[in-house]
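Please produce the structure of this protein holding zinc ion.
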Amino acid sequence: MGLNDSSPGAMRNGRGLSDQWAESVVVRPRTTERHITVHKRLVLGFALSILTLIIVTAVAVVLSVRFEECGGREGVPGEAGTRGPGGSAKLNGSRGERTGERGDEEGAQPWRSSRLPGSVRPRHYDLRLAVYMDNFTFSGEVSIELECINATRFIVLHADRLEVDRVSVTAEGGASGRPANRPGGGVMRVHRHFPYPANQMYVVVLHRELKPMRVYRLNVSFDAAIEDELLGFFRSSYTLQRERRYLAVTQFSPIHARKAFPCFDEPVYKATFSLTLRHDPQYTSLSNMPVESSSLSDEDGWVTNHFARTPRMSTYYLAWAVCNFTYRETQTDGGVTIRLYARPDAISSGAGDYALHITKRLLGFYEDYFKVQYSLPKLDLLAVPKHPYAAMENWGLSVFVEQKILLDAEVSSSSYQMELTMVVVHEICHQWFGDLVTPVWWEDVWLKEGFAHFFEYVGTDFLFPKWNMEKQRFLTDVLHEVMLLDGLSSSHPISQEVEQATDIDRVFDWIAYKKGAALIRMLANVMGQPLFQKGLNDYLLSHMYSNAARDDLWSKLSQAMHSEGRDINIGEMMDRWTLQMGYPVVTISKNQSEQLPTHYITVSQEHFLYGEEVRKNNSLQWQVPLTVAAGNASAASLARLLWINNRTETHMMGPMDDNTWLLGNINQTGYFRVNYDLQNWKLLIQQLHSNPQIISVGNRAGLIDDAFNLARAGYLPQGVPLQLIGYLPEEMSFLPWHAASRALYQLDKLLDRTDEYRLFSDYVLKQVASRYHQMGWPTNGPEGSVLQASYQTEELQRELIMLACSFGNKQCHRQAVAYISDWISSNKNRIPPNIRDIVYCTGVSLMDEDVWEFIWMKFHSSNAVSQKKILLEALTCSDNAFLLNRLLNLSLTSDLVPEQDVIDVIIHVGRNPQGRNLAWKYFREKWDILNSRYGEALFMNSKLISGVTEFLNTEKELNELKEFIQSSGVGAGPALPRALEIVEGNVRWHRLHRRQFYQWLRKPPSSALG
Ligand SMILES: [Zn+2]
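Below is the modeled complex.
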C-alpha cells in the first residue's frame, strides 16, 4: 500500500508520455555514422507518415486505423485510445485502463499479463548511471542486448517509478554477431512506447517485427529519485562527528530492480551486467564486481567508475552503493578479496572484524562442501544503518543492517553473537544457493531460503563445533517454531503459486525459510550426508549461472541415491511435503490385536491441526520416513527406518514386553509429530525420571514439544506434558530446558490473567529451583566472550535465570536488583553480558521510575548497537502504564527510536502482562500509520500483528479482533487470518481444557507413574 500510489509516480508517468515522436527514436548516438542513419530514417519516416495521413484522410477509411503519423501521437497512448473497460476485466486497478489500445494493433497486449511474454530475452545490460547525492536523484542510460525468441513487434520489460526519456531499438544482426551496418542491421523504427503501471511494465511497440534468432539492442534513458523508502535505489543516513552523512544503496529483491532501471525483472531472465557509476568524488561506489577502470572528469571533477562485467545472473542480485564508508579487508587462500565496509567509526573500533574473519572461513567451508569455487574475484560486506531485511545476499556485494554484522565483543551477549553469526552464514550460503543457482520463479523461493536457513546451522557448526547447532538448536528454533505455524488451517504449502508482482513479498515467510530448512534436513538424514552432498554438488554444477526448479533438485538427489543402488523416488516423496500444507502426527502403538504377536506395532498418520473441528474431514497423507527405536530402563535398540505411506500400517519390531517403550522420530530429524498410547507415554516419562540419558537430547526436547502441542490441540490429556516436565530437575542439558521454556511461555500467555495462575507459576518454579540454584549466576570474568566459554553451560544458565526471574523466584529478583543498584551507584556496568537483558528487564519491572529513567538515559548514550537494543527492550518491562505509553508514543513519533526497532517496542510491550491491553489498543489506534510505514514489508507486518494478538484469549478480545479485521484489516495479507485462528484456538483451549489443566495442577499424582 502507499507504495505505488504516491503522486510522484503518476507525475513521472505523465512526463514520460509527453515525449515527442522524433525524440523517441533518436538514441544518444555513439558514432557519426549511426547518427546519420538515424536522420535519414527520420526524414523518410516523416515523409511516409504525412503521405499516409493524406491518403487516410482522403479515402476516409472506416476500418481500424493504424496511426503512423508524426507529431505528438507517438508516446501518448495513455491519453489516446479507448478508456473503456474493454479487455480490462482481469485488471485489478484502474491505472491499467489508462493504456487503452487500438484493437487492431495490439490484440495480443502481452503487457496485460502479469508475467513477461518471453518473446525476447536479455543477454547483456550496459547500465550507466549518474548519481546526484545533493538532490537525491539519478539519471541513467541502459543499453540492453536482446535475443529474439519469437517474432514480435513488442518489447515488454519492467519499469516502475522511472521517468523514461528516450527509447530506441537497433538491430545488431544475427545471433552470430552480424554487424549492424550489414543488411538486416540498423535502427528499428519505434511506433510508440508507454508505461503500463498496473503490471509495472514498460512497452515498446515497433513498426516491424523482431525476427527470431536475431540480436537487437534496446536503449532507454531515464531519470528517477533516490527514495527514502527502503526499496529500489534508496538513501539512508547516519551521524559522524555530529554531522549527518548520507549513503545510497540498492535493495532489488524481489521486484525492485525495475525501480532503478528498465529491465526484465524476473529471476529467469539472467544476463550479464556492465555498470558504470558517475558521482561526486567525495563518495566511493561499490557494485557486485570490482572497479575495472576509474576516471575523473576535467569539467566537474566527478569520478566515473566502470565495474567489471558480472557473470550471468538475475536482475535482483545486481547491487550498487554510493557512500563514504571505510573498510577492512582480508584474503582467502584462493585469492578472493573480502572487504567489510561500514561507517568509519565502526571500522576503526574493529566492530566489523568478527564478520570479516568468519566470512573468510565460511567461503572455504562452502567451497569444500559444495565442491564449487566461489565465482567472483571479491566479496564486499556492506553494513548499512537502515535496511528492510536483516541482510541481502547480492552477489559479491552483500548488504547487512548494522545490528546483524557489527559486533562489539566486549558488551555483546552470546545470543547476539549467535544471531549475527547465523545471518552471515546464511548470506554466504546464498552466494551458491541463490546467486549462482537461482529458483526459476518465486513459488520455489524456499529452494534458496530453505537451503540458506538449513546451512545456517551446518555452517555455524563448522565455525563453532561446540555450539552443536544442527543437532540441537535447530530443533527448537526452526522445527518447533515452524510446526506451530504450519499446524494451523490457515497455513499454506511451501511451494505457493504467485503471479501478481504485489504478491511476491508474501512468499518470503517462515514457511519458506523454516519449513524449507526442516524438509531439507529431513531429506539429508534420509539420504545420509555423503549422498546428500553428492546430489547437491551435481545440482549446483548442472545449473550454475542458470535457474532451477524443485524437480531439478529432486532428480539430482534421486540420481545420487540410484548411484548407490538405493531406489527412492525423491520427487514423489517430496511432492507430498512441498505441495501439501501442514504435516502429519504419527501415532505409534504396540499392537493390541489377538492375532498378531506383540512384536508388531501399528502406525497411523493424520494431518496435525490445532483446531479440533477443522480436522474432521481431512484426507491429506504423506510418505513419512519414520525412525523407531524400542527400549527399556537399561537400554534402547538401534533406530529402524519405516516408510509410512498409508493411513494405518502394521510393522514388525523386535521382541517387546510390557515394560518396553517405543520412541519415534529419532533425534527429531523428521518434520512431523509423534503420539503414542497413554501407556507408552507413561513408560517414556518413567524413563526420563529414572535415567534420561538413554533417550537422546534431541528426542528429550522433541518429547517435550510434542507433548505440549498434542495436549494443546486436544490429542492428549493436559496432565501428560506437565507430568513429563516433572523430570526436568534431572535434566543437565540446555536443549530440553529450552524446549520446555518455550512451551511454558506459550502457556504463560494463556494463563497469566487467570485466577489460579499461581498454581501454574509455582509448578514451574518447583521444576526450575534445584537446577537454578545449582548452576548459580555467571561470574563476570575478563574473558566474557562466548568463543572461549562453553556455549551449552552458558545458555543453560541463562535459560534457568530467565525462567526463575520471569516466574517469580525471589532470590533471582534480589540478585537482579542488586546488579542494577550497583550499576547506578558505581556507574560501572558489572552485569555479565549474557544475562543483561534479563537483569535490565527484571530491574525495570521491580524497581521504581528512576531505574526506568536511568535505562532510558543509557539507551541514548550507548553507541553499541547490541546494547541499545536490549536497553530499549528493557524499557518495555515496566508495570507503569504511564511510562509504557510514553515509550510507545516516543517510538512512533520521534526519531529517538530507530525505525526498525519501533515494531519490537510494541511487541515487547505486548509481552509484558501489564502492557498487553495497552499494546493491543495502541496497535489498533495507530494501525493506519503503522500499516503505511511497514505494511509493504510483510515480514515486519506479520511479526507485528502476531506480536500484539497472540496473547488475546477471551471471547471479548476475540470479538475485538474480529471487529478490527472487518473495519481495518483489508489487504493486510495472511497475518490477520492467522492471528484470528490463533486467538480462536486460545479461546477454545480455555473453554475445553483449562479446567482439566488446573485440576491436574491442584492434585498432581504423587509418583511419575501417575
Ligand atoms: Zn536468505
